[in-house]
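Lecture notes, unit on protein representations.

Consider one protein chain, 732 amino acids long.
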Amino acid sequence: MRINTIILSLFLALVNLAELFAQNPLLRHFTSNEGLPGTTLYSMVQDRDGFLWFATDVGVARFDGINFQNYTISDGLSDNRIFNIKPDSKDRVWFMGSNGTVSYWLKGKIYNATSDTFLRNITSRTPFINCFEDNKNRLWFISGHENIILEKNQLKRFERWTDIFINSKSGPIVGRASSHSFSRYTGQELIEFKLRHYLIPFSKFSTLPDGSVLFVSKEGIVWQSDTVQKVIIPYEWESSPGIMAGLALSVDSLLWITVQGIGLYCYDLKKPLLEPKIYLKGKLTKDVLADREGNIWISTINEGLYMIPVWGEKVIVFNKENGLASNPCYSINKLKTGELLVGMDEGKVNLISGNKIFNVKTYDCDNLENKVSRILSRNDDVWIASEYGIVHQNKKTGCDHFIKDSSHLKWAEDYQRIMHINDLSLGADKIYITATNTKFEYPLNCQKTSNHWATSIRAKRYIYNSSFYCDHSGQLWNGTFQGLFSILDDSVIDHSKEDTLLTKQIISIAETKNSIMVLGTYGFGVLFYKDGKILKRVTRTEGLCNDICRKIFVHKDRVYVSTPSGVSVLHYLNGKILSIQNLNTGNFLPSNHVNDVFADDENISVATMNGVAVISQDVFENIKPVLPFLSFTEISVDDSIISLEGVHRFPYKKNSLKIRFIGINFQKPHEVNYRYRLKENQTWKTTENNHLEMSFLPPDDYYFQLQARVQNGKWSPPKSFVFTITPPFWKT
């Protein structure tokens, strides 16, 4: 049987070529499966404490990075269909209902017209669609036909439609798309005036921190401060692809625009004449929000919520949705020409060249269990190993064949292949191959006319080989289920006797530049080994993602460890671990289940069970954890919830406190940890929980302090709660 080949310029022929423009940023997707009340989201906002609020067709949701807390009319909302959410300067979060009513959240409770009777006056015969607070703390409630202005419990109504609101020093400015006009509010009336650019119908605007706004006009994207306007991204409206529903400006000067039915547009304000990148193609995107960490959130109609982390636009993900043959990826390697080779199941290998994917079967066996477990390359040679054989290809020599086992039957072609390959390693002039219970060597300078037979290594056969490695000196290292062995001049050395840890299964082997062997174990972490001694062991206790290792890859002074819980990057220098950084779904990866990794000076390329992630080394090195938004969510004394305001004095019998808190970080929500103390002169105690119970506290004055951080980053400013437990009268 003839083998199908792919590797673009490297291989002899291309079969079934599929070229796709496949770049996508790193995306996280949230639906009802993750806790959203529904999959249609209208608008989003972030409150002062860092929580994200989402307006949906079945209530509102508050998100802390891990959990969605959902609220409906049974919790106090005035309507289940909420079109918009806005916070004000008094820490209220306002909800605009489709039935022309409003309600608000304050200190853990939702108020409606029943619990706050003044809200009975804020009603409209058409739905409320927005709410604004001007520089004088007046609240503007915007419905389909009028503005209702709330100032010191007094209401004013103006019969008009408002599409845009601008806070200026000389008074708030409102704009109407239908009349192509603006009006300034004097405190008594609206005075109309004209400007050159105006908001197009059915589109939104974005308010920047300095009070200026961005909006969509017929001439392009316009920036406006007071009455000063400037087109920052010009284009012809007639060529616009559709309704631009939402705008957001991120910290890296990227402008994000949702276009319903088209997707998400990303403009670079530093290069306004460049064509935008388009993500989430074909989706009914609704609103877009840049949170205070720099993450981008995109709401949709019927498909839930998407999030692009602050660095996500610089992380490229390739998966089945954008052209990869399969989501589960088991091996990865980078060619000298810069293309990536990715091994999948059914014997498939994809080549990723820039933003294009070439997708062709490389084996004649499409069995789902035929996983391409290992890919190596050097110069023009490529070796691709799977359960059903190993292929060697070289465009210059014309090699294009399976490597065969010389001990097998010469007349049975299908039985000549080396099967069930576990690992490959490149030496100076040979490639070394380990199968389940056999080891082979094969010359690197194979010619087209070679007989393709590999030579069995005449050393003791150790059943269940796991890994094989040829070090810089030419010594062979063999990881097995029974531990570590080495082969030198046909002699077998049993290293399992040197240390108990060397009796464990060695799943992967690599070598540092100073000839220290790095051993990845199955359940016992990473071992650094040299001259018969384990120099260092790294486990989850020290910060490793998982003690089960899958592949070890070394580049310069970085050791990359693939695990079922992500990739750990160990900075190893002069015999010391200087730092450990983890890649997972909390930051860079589409899946925690990582099978292989390849790193060079440019990128970190990771093969996961949900596609391939390509991460810029520059981004990885320079991204620092941001401080979490820390707040108390609930404090109770003897199971009675108390207010966080005022002076707190409790009698000696009420001396058991429960404190709940949250450190909000959307980039790495599961890696937030805390420390606390009851008095300033006490030592800090650390915890990964977001609740504490302190029982039977003795009478005293207490100054409870709490801090949060992400991984081993900087601690946030402390939050405090001061209270006193008074002694009984007979002790005063």
